[in-house]
## 1
Amino acid sequence: MLEFLEQLTNGLARGGIYALIALGYTMVYGVMKLINFAHGELFALGAYLGYCLLVSSNLIGGLGPVLAIGLTIILVMGLVALAGHLLEKVAYRPLRHSDRLAAVVSALGASIFLQNAIMLTWGAQYRAYGANLLPNLLITVGGLKIPLIRIVVLFSALVVMLGLRMFIHRTRLGLAIRAAAIDQKAAKLMGVDVRQVITVVFILGPALGGLAGLMVGLYYGQITFNLGQLYGLKAFTAAIIGGIGNITGAMVGGMLLGLIETLGAAYISVGWKDAFTFLVLIMILIVRPTGILPERVVEKL
Amino acid sequence: MTVGDSLMLKLEGLKVAYGAVEALHGIDLEVRRGELVSILGANGAGKSTTLMAVSGLVKPKSGRIIFYTDDGRQEYLENLRSHQVVGLGVIQVPEGRRVFGPMTVEENLKLGAFSRKKWSEDDLKKVYQLFPRLEERRHQMSGTLSGGEQQMLAIGRALMAAPKLLLLDEPSLGLAPMLVKSIFKAIKEINLSGVTVILVEQNARAALKLANRAYVLDVGSVVLTGCAEALLTDEKVREFYLGTR
Ligand SMILES: Nc1ncnc2c1ncn2[C@@H]1O[C@H](COP(=O)(O)OP(=O)(O)OP(=O)(O)O)[C@@H](O)[C@H]1O
Ligand SMILES: [Mg+2]
């Protein structure tokens, strides 16, 4: 039982990370009907910027863990958001009026470019955040020992997701995003500045992705330049499982993916974990091609 | 203010092309304050294209779209982006209604007021007064409304923007005759309350009964214009658009 709860909390934390990345795919797709293939690389960039701040610049030594992590979160999210914004300007905006496929090619190109840029900057070898970066605290709940970092990861993922939901449903800009996701032309006729909406989703999505990258570094301890590939692919799948374009769906899909993967690795086979995960995902999609959420909940964004 | 004492909108030599194909070959058109002007024409004549150009959703190849504001300024709409046009109070109800299906009726109406700094429950009430059906269904997903109810919603949503100039693109499309009647009655009411209206229609007879003046488009050009009563009895119009009855 304890073993199961241990795996469960681990799966939820992993799922929270997937969910954060999946949100970036789904928001951009919702508004632009474009899959931002470079999103996984923005996520990896977040992991490396975190490495840069926490390990190379040793912020923790200077500021103490709480302040250092707080500052790192803000800087990583801000810088990756900026990168996402530049990406939109350079790779997508010039193609606004061109063929869909042109944008896909541009997205793939941007992805390769970013991955190479990361490799050239930080090298092809693994980089370690280090096991002793944060005090290795264990929280004990009735015999169950949970690493503090797991709680921090899960908790911040949930807070960010909740915040995003409130932003989308309670603010004027959120309303504009929802309207543009349903029908761009009609949204324009309501006075929504769709260009501004696109700018916003290309800032929000990457910010969340960058945060997820930082979390991976902190939670798993080491990163590599092609980190974005597999995480990107899985989070993208999570977004599809939740019904692409659907924000709640991306959250649910990400969580589900984290759980399936962790429990599969624990109880079936570590080596077959990715194969097993995708098998389950494919089966879900065969049964529900438009995603797991029931029809009535399916509200775009 | 009497109807038609000052200009509100003027199109000068408006040309629009989709790729290499020119859809409008130089349209001249005027709308005066308080008027209800109808644009008639067969499928593909360029009626929707004209409205889309005014709303800033397609950019003209050449020509001008001049909007005269209440305080006497002239705005060249061809240089503005769509949300700026909406900001001036030029509001379109597009062909096919395009309500936001996954949102409720009331959310759609609130979204209609998106361009305004302030709006009140009174604005909602006014829409519900005009279309009581919408109030009954305020919490229903608008995608599940009937065609007629969706049209009411599309018009109500536009009213929430406090339009100065209302552009209606084929509001009678696909509606039963009874519903067309009540929609047209509502349009007249809106116009009489002081909103200038451009009504694009294929249902020429009904539109001409409502309008002050009308323009007839054919493959991208204005072929006929005049006051509505005269057009109703015009030989050519009767032959081509009203059917000889
Ligand atoms: N997005 C587009 N791309 C290419 N051609 C277009 C586009 N929209 C309209 N057209 C063409 O422009 C011409 C005018 O179309 P428009 O929709 O303005 O006609 P309409 O008078 O509104 O017709 P209807 O009564 O059928 O709505 C048509 O020949 C149409 O095929
Ligand atoms: Mg049309």
Note: The mean pLDDT of chain A is 92.
## 2
Amino acid sequence: MDLTQKRYADTVVLSPVGRIDHSTSEGFKAALEPYMARCAVGLDRVLLDFVRVEYISSVGLRVLMLASKQAKTQGGSLGVAALQPAVKEIFDISRFTMVLDVFPSVRDGLARLSPPALAAFDAG
Amino acid sequence: MPADERLTVKFWGTRGSIPVAMNSAEVRRKLIAALLRASGRTLDTPEKAEVFLERELDFAVSHTFGGNSSCVEIVTGRRDYVLCDLGSGARVFGNDVLATRGPSGNTFHAFMSHPHWDHIMGFPFFMPAYASGNRIRIYGCHADLEEAFRGQHAAPSFPVDFSRLPAAIEFVRLEPERDYEIAGLRVRPKLQHHGGDSYGYRFQGNDKVVVYSTDAEHKLDDLAEIRSFADFFRDADLVIFDSQYSLAETTSIKEDWGHSSNVVGLELCQMARAKRLCLYHHEPVSDDERIAALLAETRRLEEITRGDRRVEILAAFDGMEIAL
Ligand SMILES: [Zn+2]
Ligand SMILES: [Zn+2]
């Protein structure tokens, strides 16, 4: 799975596209790995922009859980933003909104993760 | 099985881990909710009250999911009884048999998922075991199944030793991934992830398929395993599924605790093109509102993830019957 990336100061915004299910989650995990390696204290913060994700299955959610655990042990920050309504419902029903940092929009996520990143985002 | 007989599944115990009972505070909450809904109505006959309860109150107000631990009956239309697990629900089942069929002359076939206490604890209170002339065959894949049953009858835990039970009791060791013909059903056990292992059972009779799969954790990153369970559930009319935890719990703090979630149950049923998913082995902490909400959420999840085929979602309660 391709992840387009945009950097705002110390924060990388990654944008997966389509369905994250049993057939694509391995690719999603692999694409995420290099960014998660740098998602650590003093390095990068990572925000996943989910605006173009149509569906996520249990195995995709598990990839997010593992990434979140990795971020925590490395002292980094990981957030997920801009869920489509159906995907937001999947997060709610699976209780992932209780264990991941989920934000209504990319801007909200940047505001929480990193003030310099928000400034860079607002500066366009 | 006669061709006109269907399979019916009766739930005698649906709670996971330990039996629970509703307390007075919960009963009062239900009564207050019901009385408020009834205010201004004339419910002056039992019939009117009955209709009001059925039509106007939510399930969680007018009913309870119940608190007995695992025990499910598969009614085949034959004289022999078929059960899955002998948790505390087996006590209620046994008493029902005494009341409807009498104390003796009955044969029971019980398929055991595993010997954890919540799945065997009904047996010391299973009255048919205390009458000679009853025959009880206990099937399972665990080598130590008989030992577990004998252990819970032994002093100092219980006053009647297993050896003194008058019924004819036999233990029958099954092997996973093999088909057996038992009590008019084709039965296939399957190994599942759980502390000390557990086994699911796929029952086929009269062109209907029931899968009993409790106390099972599913490793989401193991595609081969996911596929093998989709095959095990393939085209089932009913899948009885351990949904004790949320998906978030099973991938975080309760990983490797040996249970699954509504989300994974639905995904497996969708992959398997199963007709019905029944949420089972309810978390003991959950009250009726919480289980009802879990059911509503799972139905909603089915709606938003539906492909070309619908899966009907049910939540098991003590006393529920499903005719297939
Ligand atoms: Zn159990
Ligand atoms: Zn167990």
Note: Chain B has two domains: 8-22+64-323, 24-37+45-61.
